[in-house]
Design goal:
By secondary structure, the chain is α+β, with helices and mostly antiparallel strands. It is built from eight helices and seven strands. It is globular. The two termini are about 30 Å apart.
């Protein structure tokens, strides 16, 4: 299936729920890209046993697909001096949840309790800030179905998936807040900033 070996399928179908997929991602060390920037395919993630947020989202989307969900990801855009974030999303009983790979204490898993994607994205807003407390989340994409890239064998590719990142970057994004709201944002508290510096790896 999707070019995966039986051993790879066994590993990726062992987690039986979205929550279990999140638990699986937590076991994978963060990809610090010490030898240069990467966008590893799901096969390379489990082979090299490392991933960053986009790589984790693509792997989670595949694992959701193996459970019968669509392989959907959402791109979260920040200001130019902060990093964007990518999450895998699924819908359960009419509500949206998210699986997220991050090295920090924030921007993590979301239970499927959100009525729409905007509501889900807003749940990340107050946790999305720089080390000096500036809140930076600005826009988001609608869910992108990674099945559109099946002809390019994104699941098992030995090449970096830059074309998916570029696609996510250019699809329409929708604002989280307007200019007047941006001008009135309060900095995250000192204790929030301290919590934001906690890392898993």
């Amino acid at each position: 299936m999707f070019g995966l070996t039986s051993a790879e399928l066994k590993l990726l179908t062992k987690p039986r729920t979205p929550a279990a997929i999140q638990d699986f991602l937590e076991k994978i060390p963060i990809n610090f890209e010490k030898k240069g920037e990467t966008v590893l395919s799901p096969r390379r993630v489990i082979k090299e046993w490392r991933c960053h947020c986009a790589e984790g989202a693509f792997l989670a989307a595949l694992m959701l697909r193996l459970q019968g969900y669509k392989p959907l990801v959402v791109d979260l855009k920040s200001v130019w001096h902060d990093d964007d974030h990518v999450i895998a999303v699924w819908r359960q009983h009419g509500y949206w949840g998210a699986i997220s790979k991050t090295n920090h204490a924030v921007l993590r898993y979301r239970e499927p309790i959100y009525r729409d994607i905007r509501e889900l994205v807003l749940s990340y807003f107050h946790e999305y800030f720089t080390n000096n407390g500036v809140k930076t989340l600005r826009s988001y994409s609608k869910p992108v179905n990674l099945a559109r890239f099946d002809k390019r064998s994104w699941v098992i590719s030995e090449q970096d998936l830059w074309y998916i990142v570029r696609y996510l970057d250019k699809v329409p994004h929708y604002p989280v807040i307007n200019r007047s709201q941006i001008s009135n944002l309060r900095l995250a508290d000192k204790i929030e900033r301290q919590a934001g510096k906690l890392t898993a790896w």
